[in-house]
Fold Magnesium transporter.
Amino acid sequence: MASVLRARKERRRVSSSPRPLPKRFQALPPSSSVDWLAEDVLAALTPAACKRPGVLDRLRQELVSTAADLAELNNDDLRDLGLGMAERRRLLSWALGEEEGHSDLTPTEELGVLAQEEQPRTNFKLERRASLGGRPLQCLEKAERDMDLWFDLAADIQTPHLASQLQRFLSGHCNGTSGPHEMPSSREIRMRCIREDILEEQFDLTPDRMREVFFRLRRAAGGEIRSAKQLSEGLSQLGLASVAETHLARAIDTVTGGSCSSLDAAGLQLEEFEVIFSRLKLAQLLGKKDGGVSDVTQTDLLTVCDFDLHQQELKTLSGVEMCKFFFGHRGIMGTEDDDDGCCPVRWVHLRNCQFELLLALAVKYRLHPLGVEDVLEQRPTKVDLCGQHIFITLEHLWVAGGADGEGASPVQVRSRHVSIICSAPPRFDTVITVDQPNRCFAEDWPGELDSGRDESDAWVSTLQSRLRRLRSRLRERKAHYLAHHIIDMCADELVQVTRAYSARLRFLEQALQGPTAGPGAVPSRPVPMSQWLEEVSLVRLQLAVVARRLRSHRSMVRRLGEAPGVCGEDRLLSYLDDVADHLEEALDDSHHLTDRCDALTVAYEIAVSREQARQREEAKQSDRRVQEQQNRHAERLNDTLFVLTVFTAMFAPVQLISGVYGMNFVNAEGHPTIPELLWPNGYAYFWIFAASLWSVPIRFSF
């Protein structure tokens, strides 16, 4: 800020034409404005800011000494000083000479008058100011916070049947009390016409819609709404039937401060009608029959974080505190008038998309039905500028297992649906996030889902810890930087998913190749089984889903950077370009990993073919060895049979002859009947004959 102020002074000094003074000092002599100190102006206009630590020190550090220097600061410079919205508005009005009721006073006189006021205007109550139809605005502010009044009025209002049904199955699923078979599909939800029959008809409180309805009711009432009966007829057309006229009369008296004469003269004003309608809707959502708060507020699903450059406050709301949040407004944190603890920037986080709380947020912040519909139906990653808010939906993917960097275990991925609602430029003072289970992820994601511990709130805890740091850059900037930070965190998780798959594929590739003893050596590890190929094919399908998420995320970031007024003068575009570059790199990596899966599949097929060829060759060699062994055995058997045959051929005739001549046949006298037995040389003849028989096989055997 000091550099900006010094640059302005330097341009004023070297400029050929003198720069005109601010409107507050144009009618005064140049020397008179120098006598006023900037600290005196701050003490008179914003005494609460002077009491906060660091404001005056920052003022002196930035060389803002005179009132003229203070008047040259713009809205962003005052925010850097640590001033709230109301304080910045009052200083700017004083610098431009627009302070109501003091237009006829000189700056010195005005500072004296402001210093003597009993209660300086440091919040949004705007006391002692006449407003709508001559009625004080503090009555309207008080009526907004009167929860008992609106709970009593809304006790007889029935929730529409269609909204009750939607509430049951949406709340049951988001709270984890119902199984997947009890949750209807997106098609069934769309068939119920959420937007047309519920959101647009009963919960559309956008400024354009309220203005259209109000002026239509005024025309129907004959020009002005002056009675509870006319208001009751108008509310019945908006889905708030069966509200007693006596109760509405009480609400009108509270809102207008009991100014019946002014109501008869000017009628009910638009702001008063918005308060009555919005508070009745909130009481319908959060109240119950006995006039107290309902069970929907007895949860810890809603957290609110208010922060600025100097301080930060985190609350988990439930019960009466939650009702005060919805029925109240933010003031200046640390003041006695701060009912719900507010700061220049507010972050509201809703876990699991509780239906009534989401509708209550839509009523409180005047959210557009199109954006609320995107949250309920869990639309894919996109960005839309609807009304006064920027709606961003994200399909958040993160690694739940296999993120050790080594890839030793399969990658497990989980998903949540994150919705970001940021107030549109130029305010950028509120961010609403809704984190809920992704109902379509089980259908889109190939393979089985991991059922381990859910760490879906890790990004929320990380962001809250960063906001608690004293020197956090997030606390120096507006709400759209917080929204960018959430987008950046989701993008980093997507990048981590691609890195986890890269490590896993590297591990699978090493498993395929196996340890080798040297170039050309045969792998000692066998080729992986069929689960290896199944996992590679599954990884390829999962990478296709990750690539789709990366493309949609990248398109969303680019559209957000091109949206008018989103980046502003805070150089947010460079941050968004950095996120887009990371997503582009991760998308290229996912395509590379997909090609790598194809290459691994081809390598696996080649390895399997080589292994099959090796196995066939080994089978052939084994068959050859068996055949050789059988041949050797047959040869030994043949040799044995040959020897036996030779001996048989040699001794069989001799045995026959010996057998024949060995028979002892004799006649009556006892002489042998075989004549050869009586030959004198018969025994020699026998051996000569045997030798001649043995010579024949021996000759043929050689």
In short: The beta strands are 302-307, 312-317, 345-351, 382-386, 389-401, 412-423, 430-437. Residues 45 and 91 are 7 Å apart (CA to CA). The chain has a mean pLDDT of 76.
